[in-house]
Amino acid sequence: MRRRDFITLIGGTAAGWPLPARAQAERVPLIGAIAPLSPGDAEGQARVAVLQQALLELGWVVGRNVRIEYRWGSGDADRNHKNAAELVGLNADVILATGTPTLEPLLKVTRTIPIVFVQVADPVGAGFVESLSRPGGIVTGFTTIDYDTTAKWLELLKEVAPNVRRVALLRDAGTASGIGQWAASEAFARSFGVELRPVDTSPAEIERVLNVFARNPDGGMVVTESGSAIVHRDLIVTLAARYRLPAVYALRLFVTAGGLISYGSSTIDPYRHAASYIDRILKGTKPSDLPVQYPTRFERVINLKTAKALGLTIPPSLLATADEVIE
Fold first, then answer.
1. Angle, to 10 degrees, between the axis of helix 100-109 and the axis of helix 77-89?
2. Where does 149-266+298-326 sit in CATH, by number?
3. Domain 3-144+267-289 maps to which CATH number in 1.10.1740.10, 3.90.1570.10, 1.10.3210.10, 3.40.50.2300?
4. Angle at 264 between CA 315 and CA 128, to 5 degrees
5. Whether pTM exceeds 0.90
6. Residues whose CB is less than 8 angstroms from the CB of residue 83 and which lie 6 or more positions away in sequence, other chains included
7. DSSP result, 145-163
8. What is the pLDDT of residues 247-264, one digit of tens each?
């Protein structure tokens, strides 16, 4: 048999192999993606769409030359741990982790699989990376805020509701970022003439504390950035409306759900950037060589319908400089 005929025969045979056999011959890279949201959450689906589009632009076609396994936590800590173990068990080539509630359990079950995170507020303080410029280990990604942002939240609250003297500050007390955001807020509170009341972001705690807090006048609320707050955003926005509490939120998605005003980084853009890191890792770059990045753009969003319901007049200066006004 001539060499050319032999090569043609082998090539034709490989093309005719059953799919499992061909998968062994040409393994398709696997991306694991774990998030604390529910699978039907519109915010989660928007993030998935952006991630896959960004990967496509980099040459990764889902179902052709890359696979993605999604896992959703639905606000359940036990499920986050189970999801982490499942993705590690699948031997993913890289895992995308959204938020501290998914990153922590991943690091308990793997020290070898590269991880790219998004929506993690204080990766250094939490011990996930050694530093932003030199993360070390298997983890890198995109952080969301620095603690000076907490001053901006208090400033905005006083601008839209000058009479506020007491502020319920919602944060995840079980995370380094939650502790840090509380400490920073306390440091700034005096300069804004407000007294802070810490509120953990578990549903039972939110309802119990706000029910008591709202009985006295001059109250307002700041909702810091946390995965738990995002999961329970509808409850938080509903309670703010029920108790007529002017509230400033860390993220736009609270305002589109009916909240008053937000100031913070985009929850969508990081997934575009994460795709570039995933691409580089799949091509051989180590996570330790990819610096953790801060957001480059912050946005302010105002809901005028909510302001009207609360009897508030938004200063023209805020409206003029808002990135988005919902009417």
1. 50
2. 3.40.50.2300
3. 3.40.50.2300
4. 160
5. no
6. 34, 71, 72, 73, 102, 105
7. --TTHHHHHHHHHHHH-TT
8. 999 999 999 999 999 999
